[in-house]
Amino acid sequence: MMKAIIADHTATGQGVEPAEPHKKRVGFKKRSKIPGVMVTQWMEELPEGKSNPDFLRKPIALTIQEGRTAAFKAVVSGEPRPEVSWRRARGDMNNTDKFRNKYDESTGEYTLEILKVTTDEADTYKCYAHNEFGKAVCTATLNVIEVGFKKKKAMEEADMATTDPAEFRKMLRKRAGRAKPQEKKEGDVDESFWEIMTSAEKKDYERICTEFGVTDYRWMLKKLGEFKKEQEEEQKLDGVMIPYSENMEMKHNLKKVGKKLVFTVKDLLPEDAGLYQVDVEEVNVFSTEFKIPSVNFIVKIQEVKAKEREDALFECVLSMPLPKIVWIGKNATLEDGDKYSITVSEDKLIHRLLVKDCMQLDKGIYTAIAGIKSCSAWLVIEADSGPPIPYKKKSRKTTQAGGSGLNVEKLAQEQQLKLQMGNGEKNGAKTQDKAKQQKMAMVNGNAEHGEGHGFDNSRSRLDCGGSGGLDRKGQDGHDSGGADLNDIGIKGTGNSNDALSDSGAEYTDSSGRVLPNKDPNVGTSQNSDDPNNNLLNNHQQDPNKEKECLIGNSKNDINQNGLGGHKDDGDAANRIYHGNERMTSDKETEAGNPEASTTNTGKNQNALKGRDAQNGQDATNQHKSAKIGGHSVMNGEDDQHASNEQDAQCTKDVQKIKSTHYAQNEQEGLNRHTGISGENNGPSDRQSDRQAESLDNIIGHLKSFGEHELHGKDKNAENTGQDPSDSDENKDRTKRRLRQAPLLPEAVADPGVQFVSGLSNVNVIIGQPAELTCKVSSDQCDGTWYKDGKKLATGEGIIISKDGACHKLTIKNCQADNSGKYRFEADGRKSESILHVEDPPRLNPGDLDKFSEPVVVKAGQNAIFKMPFVGQEPMKIQWYRDGEELIEENNVKIEKFSTHSRLILSKCQRKQTGEIKIKIKNDHGTVEAYSKIVVLDKPGPPQGPIEVGESSATCIEFKWRPPKDDGGSPVKNYILERQQIGRNTWKKIGEVSSVPHYRDTDVDHGRKYCYRIQAVTDEGVSEIMMTEDVMAGTLAFPGPPAAPKVVSACSDCINVAWTAPSNTGGSRIMGYNLEKRKKGSSLWSAVNPPEEPIKEKKYAVKDLVSGTEYEFRVTAINVSGAGEASPPSEFVFARDPKKPPGNVSDLKVTDTTYNTVSLAWAKPSQEVGVQDEAKGYFVEIRPAESIEWIRCNAHPITLTSFTIKGLKTMSMYWVRVIATNDGGNGAPTDVDNYVVAMPPPVRPRFTDQKMNSFMVVRAGNSLRIRVNFAASPWPEVDWLKDGVPVSKRATISTSDGTSQLLIPSSERTDTGVYTVVVKNMVGQETFSVEVRVTDEPKPPGPIALEENVPGTVTVIWESSPDEKRDDRLHYMVSQRDSTKQTWSTVGDRLFNNKFTACNIMPGREYHFRVYAKNDMGMSEPSESPTWGSSRKRDKFVIKMPIYKEYNLQCAPSFLVPLKLHTAPKGYECYMTCAVKGNPVPRITWYRNSISLNTNTNYYITNTCGVCSMLILRVGPKDEGEYTIRAESSLGRAECSTTLTLKE
């Protein structure tokens, strides 16, 4: 291979930094495998296994529309892995918001992204890949397409600039004389010249050549053409031509639509992603990158069954965050709007589709599409089982069906944690790989520059964060650049196993995971007494343990593996964490024992102990922590004081450390001290001496460094006897060694409480409850609710509750003033939402029932419809008739008022009969009501033509159809008239019944007659309908018989039978004609001769072809002739009968429940001549106590599985299956053993998705705890209170998978933890609920005021009597001064009896109030004495009128009595009434004079005088008289009602 020695003209920062700044690096130019790539190699012969950088795939030229994102991608090779950087020909790339560098570990791609490109970014970009053995460079051009209006504007400005002569003088500028540029030869032209020329316009060629000193234009144009041609060839190699079709036959298709070209890719796969370019006549006009997100569904959408007018919810969880996915319903893309609500969680993992107000039209398949993945599910709409209400549209339901049934929030949180851990592992892998490359760079640099005491480390920086660590001394005492402390090596001779040897090193990734050492016998120390004696206290290597080390707030770790050296196959000996993390030994981390290190095998490693492996000298460091620039470095303790502001001080301290370190080494005679690489990398004698240097000198070197860390500069000065600042040589060396990058990384602050799911906007109808719910990341966090900036508390109509990490605000009865912005704040975080209280139009049920009644009027009369309503104005009122909107005209008048609307239809006509609808709409909703108008008029004429049933010599029988419109009244009778053809007179036959049928027996044979018919109703007589002529004695053929049935069949004969026709044509049947037809043919052939009809209703067909399939039909014959043929029979083969099938095999029970048994079996085998194939199966069942078999399916089933339903719970059954075919039934196959109708054993589990674990109950109210569970067999249910069985005061009822504990009147002693234990033979499950029974607290005691500090007042009060019984009781302090008349809260949630009020102004009087608060509310206030004095003012005397005291006490009375109730069996019954009385009366419910207050089957409540009782399931025992009694000291009142059971 031809090689040329060239000088490296790489600009600073583009490639590898030169060894010495004043020398150009000399390399060898090589040819790359990829055209257009220039490769430079620094040395002629490379070490074995090493290679210079090269491009496997280079970036290609792009043409991008303005505003889009451009991405250059490159893949490089080289050992060690090269570093990649990007530059542009014109301008810099310092704007990180515009230019972003990325690296994909999985594909090895380096990407330069340019966000929102503009014309300023149109340039030639250069990609550099370099390592210590060479570099590789390639270029790519970015062309930007301007948008239309900007391009037009630019062209107009250019035309103005060139056409305006007045502006031409301004463009001229004076130029000073300059020397003639020196002509450059072909090899002297800078590479950037050609890159600029390729993207420049021809008018700029002269200017660019002048700037670069090129004068030979012909040579330049020739070389430029060759350069562009080479780039075109490279472009062809980089891209792959895609074959496509124009008719959607191939994977890629190109279709022209007008002036647009549409490129389509079918059946997307992950490999279809990439960069797509469009070339028109070999010119690249457009480039775009097509990305396919690598996302999958963790939870797919599930089938949803919803009822009409109910909402349906589909939800799914993705594996990767996506801001939006595509929802498709019934082959149409769904958008967020009134019908569909599409929501995405904050972490973009949970996507939901809510179908509102489901109707039958909404059922179908719904699909969620994310990337190239999709999932589908059915939406099934069940019809409402309630009775239909005529002319009334059913109201919308507030319930919601669907959902995945899983805790999708928890799954999404786990997936987000996995994604974060995955990113950490990737970053760790990158760090480890980078450390290995830098290690090799140090070794190779030593081999190349092995002279002196060191080697060139200008590119050998080992770090975790991209900046260098501590420096080392280089060749001949000169600074060599970037080696860390691990360059020192610590690899001793003899049997030394010190902790910092190369073989004992470990690596840590960016996430802090320690990769174990491959050699378990290295890294141990033979003698160790103190487990906490140093900064890096290493223990014996254990693959299951790991060590952590905290170094303040550093931006870069000291090195990849602590302070020790490492090999290529080693890992970091210590783990270095960023931020305020805990640093402990591996024993402490795993076992939590701070003295675990003392139990080690005596091989405690100590990196900074100063131990000599040969002479056993031991210097113990007694300090456990050190500070570097104010950053604590602790062993086993947390550093709580790290901050970013200490980086500068940290850098100064490190300078002092290194200065003292080298001064101490020189004093001890370590003038030639350098690091040991662990291997002999060169022939240098000094290097051999360096490897043989005693270990104690090196550890003493480290000890001095460690002591400076532990004791500071003053302590180190005392040990060395020399001030490091006095050494000029040390100062100079320190300045050369120090880096500009900070040593320690910034602290990673604890994120604190985060919102898992924030608040969402809520729309609620006025009068209905509303809930605002959010969830935070910690269940220990308490928050505060605000409305429009005002703090909220639990009070009248507002309930604030907390369930673990979920916080809920409930508004019971929403009114218009409840609208506003609500905010929840917790630990400095907040989430906001808006509550809209809507007031849609509403109709009174009584008015609606009245409106729904049809309006009946006669023709010519007026019809009036009136509909009252309520709702927020303005309202839009529309009236419809049969779906068509009515507008005011001559006969239509619409009146609209604020409370009602009227529709007046004048002079109604019969055609106006139909449905009337009123539609009322405002900004909050729409309501509709339906009615009907019926206009009565005379009927229309009867409908023809007539159907003649019989026309004989003595009779004509015919029938007709009733009028199409009966005029709104039923037809009472018909009037008939007859005319004989040839005569002018009509004979009145008279009135006949309402049945449209007549038999005329007064006829003459052969005569023709015509009839006139009129319909008669209560409203009048219709028009005349005249029939066609009918002749007496015409032919009447018989009707068709029923389809023939095949009785039997063989190869030469088929027996067929049939039945006589129902219509004989008025005469007897004389015989039948039978026809046959082969399957697939259209021709029917007679079976019997036409002149010999078949007398009987059966026949044996013998003229057959064996194996052929036939069908038959039959025709009846009477006196008039043959009638219409019958429908054809079923096809039948002319072949011998089949043999019955054999027994089914492998019959087994697949599943059982309390009501069903599922079976499965295999088909029976076939044997020619013995048993044929089975066509179906019968399943039979026999109860154990019976001897008769019951067939479960009336018709044979073709499947080999069946589910038997309707079984009796826990009963035993015998089951068998019988195969059948045309030849009969086979022998039955029984199940080996009887089957019990019960499900498989199931461990008890609770079925409620959300179960409250905390309840607060007011003393005196009923305490009710209800749980739902599933278990098989039926479990035992026990209730415990604080670990012991509940008292007899509690009533426990268990049935149908539900258990309930009820205490009718709770007391404070009922406070405790209630546990329900559900246990059966499989296992048990428990659930606990903490119940707190409390009441409004009593007020605090007297208040005393003290002034301990001027300007403040200390408020001291005595505790509330309830404080000892309620551990959640706290206090609130309010303040009012003499200048204000309002009380303001100055202290809340106070758990002590003292509070200090500040900002007390002199000359004012202050009053204080103290309230006691708990979960139930707030006590009466305790007033304080007046504090301070006010200015004396003249007395203002007011004569107050004397008011007569009014006694508010009254005897109990019922404001709203009980109503009569009729309830179906099994349904709920809700009784309610309203009672008043002062004092509050005691309420007692009775059924048939028996008290119900302690009966658990009735749910009784009393809220503000509204007394309610709910019967969950009405049965026969609940029927009777119900009485409610209200008693007080002033009297008694009763109210009764009757409950009737409706069957």
What average pLDDT do the residues reach?
Answer: 75
Approximate shape: extended
Largest sheet report: 7 strands, mixed
Q: Uncertain spans, ≥5 residues at pLDDT below 50?
A: 1-24, 161-168, 173-187, 443-748
| Rounded radius of gyration (Å) | 49 Å
Q: What fraction of residues sit in β-strands?
A: 35-45%
Q: Helical proportion?
A: 10-25%
**Total beta strands:** 100
Helical run tally: 12
Which class do the helix and strand fractions yield? mainly beta
Spatial separation of the terminal alpha carbons = 104 Å
Description:
There is one protein chain. The chain has 1543 residues and is mainly β. The chain is built from twelve helices and 100 strands. The strands form 25 sheets. Strands 1, 2, 3, 5, 7, 10 and 11 form a seven-stranded mixed beta sheet that branches. Strands 51, 52, 54, 55, 56 and 57 form a six-stranded antiparallel beta sheet that branches. Strands 68, 69, 71, 72, 73 and 74 form a six-stranded antiparallel beta sheet that branches. β2 and β3 form a beta hairpin. α8 crosses α10. The N and C termini lie far apart (104 Å). The N terminus is likely disordered.
Features:
single chain; 1543 residues; mainly beta; 6-stranded antiparallel β-sheet; 36% strand
List the helices and strands and how they pair.
Elements: E1 4-7, E2 26-31, E3 38-41, E4 51-57, E5 62-65, E6 70-79, E7 83-88, E8 99-104, E9 109-114, E10 123-131, E11 134-145, H1 148-163, H2 168-171, H3 191-199, H4 205-212, H5 217-238, E12 252-257, E13 260-265, E14 274-280, E15 283-290, E16 297-299, E17 304-307, E18 311-318, E19 326-329, E20 332-333, E21 340-344, E22 350-355, E23 364-370, E24 373-382, E25 400-402, H6 408-448, E26 537-538, E27 548-550, E28 575-577, H7 586-591, E29 605-606, E30 625-628, E31 631-634, H8 647-667, H9 685-691, H10 695-720, H11 728-737, E32 755-757, E33 762-765, E34 770-776, E35 784-787, E36 790-791, E37 798-803, E38 806-811, E39 820-826, E40 829-838, H12 845-852, E41 855-858, E42 863-868, E43 876-881, E44 884-885, E45 892-896, E46 900-905, E47 914-922, E48 925-936, E49 943-951, E50 956-961, E51 973-980, E52 987-992, E53 997-1000, E54 1008-1017, E55 1020-1021, E56 1025-1026, E57 1030-1031, E58 1045-1049, E59 1054-1057, E60 1071-1078, E61 1085-1086, E62 1098-1101, E63 1109-1117, E64 1122-1125, E65 1132-1133, E66 1145-1152, E67 1157-1162, E68 1176-1183, ...
Parallel strand pairs: 5-11, 17-24, 18-25, 27-28, 33-40, 41-48, 76-83, 93-100
Antiparallel strand pairs: 1-2, 2-3, 3-11, 4-6, 6-9, 7-10, 8-9, 10-11, 12-13, 14-15, 16-18, 18-22, 19-20, 19-23, 21-22, 23-24, 26-29, 30-31, 32-34, 34-38, 35-36, 35-39, 37-38, 39-40, 42-46, 43-44, 43-47, 45-46, 47-48, 49-50, 50-53, 51-52, 51-54, 54-55, 54-56, 54-57, 58-59, 59-62, 60-61, 60-63, ...
Helix pairs in contact: 8-10, 8-11
